[in-house]
Amino acid sequence: xxxxxxxxxxxxxxxxxxxxxxxxxxxxxxxxxxxxxxxxxxxxxxxxxxxxxxxxxxxxxxxxxxxxxxxxxxxxxxxxxxxxxxxxxxxxxxxxxxxxxxxxxxxxxxxxxxxxxxxxxxxxxxxxxxxxxxxxxxxxxxxxxxxxxxxxxxxxxxxxxxxxxxxxxxxxxxxxxxxxxxxxxxxxxxxxxxxxxxxxxxxxxxxxxxxxxxxxxxxxxxxxxxxxxxxxxxxxxxxxxxxxxxxxxxxxxxxxxxxxxxxxxxxxxxxxxxxxxxxxxxxxxxxxx
Length: 289
Hints:
Blueprint: E1 3-6, E2 9-12, E3 16-17, H1 30-42, E4 47-49, H2 63-73, E5 83-88, E6 90-91, E7 99-100, H3 104-118, E8 125-128, H4 137-150, E9 156-159, H5 163-173, E10 177-181, H6 192-201, E11 204-205, H7 213-216, H8 226-234, H9 238-249, H10 262-269, H11 278-288
Parallel strand pairs: 3-4, 4-5, 5-8, 8-9, 9-10, 10-11
Antiparallel strand pairs: 1-2, 6-7
Helix pairs in contact: 1-2, 1-10, 3-4, 4-5, 8-9
């Protein structure tokens, strides 16, 4: 599998998003989830994304982090090259809504709790999950600085950020801002300015829901879509075509498709070795306009 870099560290060009294994109302068999993570590792995936908010119920925190830690421990082979990225500052109270908490003290405690659940002395990549309108953004980013200086985290990133917030975070973190994780897919391209700014700065851009999310992913396989036409000609899945298109947008792009089944992540991982030609990329761009 092709590699890309986050903060100078090599990772696979396709990551694994852990959220589908830990969603309220959609419990996945634990062994199936662990098998999915193992299948990702077998396929060469070395970036796993999670968050303390990915849980099966409102009365818990860190379900997916604990699951990933268990899967890595039980893998039976060296996993020292695997980068686990987690996030804090965004939780689901169980009523279908999300809450933000960007208080610096809270973020520092949340990061330490995540490190404990992951079973690591320092989190490889910790990202501020979502801006909290009640807290100055600079204060929340300041917590990342302190976590870096205290050795709780090795690298810092932000999520669900605007271009202005990328600039503000960079003014505080400097080159220690290594990633931006925003929603981006053929159905959701409004984060293109953030992607392009990350490409200019050399900051990794991690599209979440790169296939459109749980509800929209099935649209990728529509028989009338250009993705399906190219996939048919290439004898690959339309999901691989979408991920390959995203990879072609910039060398900093590292999609993190979610998966709860081994077959899904194995298929997605194949996109790292699918090079779309110029004509195919033009067809996709014209289709999305």
